[in-house]
C-alpha cells in the first residue's frame, strides 16, 4: 500500500480481516425489493477486480448485480489485491485470494438470506473527535501535505444503528463514520484492519452481535495520530470511536416506540414529564416504507489527464532510479524511488479503464428505509459532501457510504482545493466542480426519496 515502505510482504497479523453481510429486504410493500450490503476490510479493488467480484457474487448468490454494494472499510494495512502486482514478492497469491474472497462472500450472502427475520433498526447520532482534516500547508516548504491540519473543517458525526428482531434479539449494529484508516503506514509490516478492528471489538463485545462499519466521506479526513508502525495506536483510535458509538447506543429509544410529552406533574416545581409510547399503526407503516433511487450523474473528466505512454515512461524511469539507489546503497533514494514506482503504477490503473467520452457516468444510489436514507458513492469524496447534506437535511438520518463498489473516480476534492498541489487533486480523474455537482445530485435524490409515497 505504501510507496515509502521498504518491504514488500507482511510479517504477520495484527487483527484478522473480516467481511460482514447485511441483507435487507422489504416485506411490507415490495418483497422483491432487496439490497445486499457487504463491509470488507480492504482498501479497495480496482475496476477489473471489482467487476469480476460483483459478477461472481451476482451469479453464484443469485442476486441482481445492481442490488449489491461492497462498502470497503478502506484500511491501508491490508495490501492492494491488484492483478498488476502478481510479479511482486507475494503477488502470486493474489489471483487465488480473489477467488476465495468471492467464495467466502457468496457463502456469507447465502447465510444471511437463510437467517433473515423481521426486524427494526433504531438510529442514534453521536460525536467523535478521532477524525481531523488532513490537508496541511507546510509553510516552510510551501507545499500541501497529507497530515493533521488543526484548522481544517471536519464532520465529527457518528451514526449508529441497532438492528433488533421482533423477538427482541440484537442482530447487528451499524456504525457510519468518516475517517481514513491510515493509522498504520509504511513502518507497519502486519496485516491489519487498522482502527476498524478495535472499533468492532468494542461494539461486538458489548452488544453480542456483529458490527457493520461504513466509511464516510473521508477524502480529506484522517486520524489525528496516524502514519505510524505501532498497532497499539490503531487499537487506541478504534476504541475511541467504539466508545463514542457505545455512548450513542445508550441513548436509543426502544424499537417501535417514541418519546413524547406526557403532561405536567405538580411538585415543588411544575414538572414536565415524558414517556415512551408505541408507534401508531400509521407511523409503523411509514417506517416500513422503502424507496430506491438510482441516477447516473455525468461528471466531466479532467482535460489534463496523463496519457498512457507518459505514465509508462514515468514507471520505467522510477524503476531505473530504484535500481540505481539499490546499487548505491542509498536508503532514502530507494524509498523515494519506490514511492514514484507506486504512483506511476496507480496512474496507469487510473486512466486505463475509463469509459470513453468527456464525462464519467457516475452511479448515485439512494435508498430510504423508514426514517433513514442510505447513500452509496463510488470514490473518495471530500468531507464537505456530508457536511452540506447534513446541513440540508438536519432531521434525517443520513448513512453516507463512500468507496461503494470501489473507486473508479478516485478522489473528488471540493473546488477550493484545486490548484493547491494536493495529492487528492493529482489523483483525481474528474474536473473541478464535480464534487459540488455530486452534492446537488445527491440532494435531489434524497429529497425525492423523502417525498416518495410509493
Explain what you see.
The protein has helices spanning 47-61, 94-114, 195-207, 231-249, 281-287, 308-328, 331-352, 384-392, 423-427, 434-451, and strands at residues 12-13, 19-25, 34-40, 68-72, 119-127, 131-133, 135-138, 143-146, 157-165, 170-177, 190-191, 211-215, 221-223, 257-266, 270-278, 290-300, 359-369, 372-377, 380-381, 397-401, 411-412. It is α/β, with parallel strands linked by helices. The protein folds into two domains: 12-253 and 288-301 and 359-451, no CATH class; 308-352. The strands form eight sheets. Strands 5-9-10-12 form a four-stranded mixed β-sheet. A hairpin with a 2-residue loop joins β17 (359-369) and β18 (372-377). α8 runs parallel beside α10. It starts with 11 loop residues before the first strand and ends with a helix. The mean pLDDT is 93.
Amino acid at each position: 500500500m505504501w510507496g515509502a515502505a521498504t518491504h514488500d510482504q507482511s510479517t504477520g497479523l495484527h487483527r484478522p480481516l473480516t467481511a460482514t453481510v447485511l441483507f435487507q429486504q422489504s416485506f411490507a410493500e415490495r418483497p422483491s425489493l432487496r439490497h445486499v450490503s457487504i463491509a470488507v476490510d480492504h482498501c479497495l479493488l480496482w475496476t477489473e477486480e471489482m467487476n469480476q467480484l460483483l459478477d461472481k457474487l451476482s451469479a453464484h448468490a443469485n442476486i441482481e448485480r445492481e442490488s449489491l454494494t461492497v462498502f470497503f472499510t478502506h484500511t491501508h494495512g491490508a495490501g492492494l489485491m491488484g492483478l498488476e502486482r502478481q510479479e511482486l514478492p507475494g503477488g502470486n497469491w493474489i489471483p487465488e485470494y480473489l477467488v476465495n474472497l468471492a467464495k467466502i462472500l457468496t457463502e456469507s450472502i447465502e447465510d444471511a438470506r437463510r437467517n433473515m427475520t423481521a426486524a427494526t433498526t433504531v438510529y442514534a447520532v453521536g460525536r467523535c473527535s478521532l477524525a481531523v482534516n488532513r490537508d496541511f500547508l507546510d509553510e516552510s516548504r510551501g507545499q500541501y501535505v497529507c497530515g493533521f491540519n488543526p484548522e481544517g473543517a471536519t464532520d465529527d458525526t457518528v451514526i449508529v444503528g441497532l438492528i433488533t428482531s421482533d423477538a427482541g434479539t440484537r442482530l447487528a449494529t451499524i456504525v457510519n463514520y468518516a475517517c481514513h484508516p491510515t493509522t498504520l503506514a509504511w513502518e507497519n509490516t502486519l496485516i491489519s484492519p487498522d482502527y476498524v478492528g478495535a472499533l468492532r471489538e468494542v461494539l461486538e463485545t458489548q452488544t453480542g452481535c456483529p458490527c457493520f462499519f461504513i466509511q464516510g466521506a473521508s477524502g480529506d479526513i484522517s486520524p489525528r495520530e496516524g502514519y505510524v508502525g505501532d498497532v497499539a495506536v490503531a487499537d487506541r483510535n478504534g476504541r475511541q470511536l467504539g466508545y463514542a458509538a457505545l455512548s450513542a447506543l445508550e441513548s436509543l429509544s426502544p424499537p417501535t416506540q417514541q418519546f413524547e410529552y406526557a403532561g405536567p406533574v405538580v411538585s415543588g416545581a411544575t414538572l414536565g414529564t415524558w414517556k415512551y409510547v408505541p408507534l401508531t399503526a400509521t407511523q409503523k407503516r411509514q417506517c416500513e416504507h422503502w424507496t430506491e433511487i438510482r441516477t447516473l450523474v455525468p461528471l466531466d473528466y479532467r482535460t489534463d489527464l496523463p496519457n498512457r505512454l507518459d505514465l509508462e515512461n514515468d514507471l520505467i524511469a522510477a524503476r531505473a532510479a530504484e535500481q540505481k539507489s539499490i546499487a548505491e546503497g542509498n536508503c532514502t533514494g530507494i524509498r523515494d524511488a519506490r514511492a514514484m514506482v507506486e504512483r506511476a503504477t496507480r496512474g496507469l490503473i487510473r486512466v486505463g479503464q475509463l469509459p470513453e467520452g468527456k464525462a464519467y457516468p457516475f452511479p448515485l444510489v439512494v435508498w430510504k428505509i423508514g426514517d433513514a436514507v442510505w447513500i452509496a458513492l463510488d470514490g473518495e469524496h471530500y468531507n464537505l459532501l456530508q457536511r452540506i447534506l447534513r446541513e440540508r437535511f438536519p432531521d434525517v438520518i443520513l448513512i453516507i457510504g463512500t468507496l461503494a463498489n470501489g473507486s473508479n473516480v478516485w478522489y473528488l476534492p471540493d473546488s477550493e482545493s484545486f490548484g493547491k498541489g494536493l495529492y487528492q487533486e493529482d489523483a483525481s480523474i474528474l474536473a473541478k466542480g464535480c464534487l459540488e455537482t455530486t452534492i446537488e445530485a445527491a440532494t435531489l435524490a434524497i429529497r425525492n426519496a423523502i417525498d416518495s409515497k410509493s
